[in-house]
Amino acid sequence: MEHPIATSGWLVEKTGITPATVNKALGHLEQLGIVKELTARRHNRLFSYAGYIAIMSRGTEMPGR
After folding, report:
1. Which CATH class is domain 5-57?
2. Mind listing the pLDDT tens digit for each residue in 9-65?
């Protein structure tokens, strides 16, 4: 929750989990709709915790939109 947006590399570094395991887990979380990839790249992908970002964004919309 401290870092709702992170790269797979950062997650590997912070967790000590192998890159293959992190990427597999992110793939599963993406299929479940829990995280969303923001970059559409093959390497250095950026992911967001979609639900958390949505909750934190509530009430920040510009008036009249």
Report:
1. mainly alpha
2. 999 999 999 999 999 999 999 999 889 999 887 777 899 987 777 777 777 777 775
- Token match 């992908």: residue? 45
Structural domain boundaries in the chain? 5-57
Torsion on CA atoms 65, 35, 19, 13, rounded to nearest 10: 60
Whose tokens are 């299929």? That residue is: 31
CA dist., res. 7 & res. 44, Å (int)? 6
Q: Give the H/E segment covering residue 15.
A: helix 8-15
Residues in Cβ contact with 19 at an 8 Å cutoff, skipping those fewer than 6 apart: 8, 9, 12
CA dist., res. 42 & res. 28, Å (int)? 16
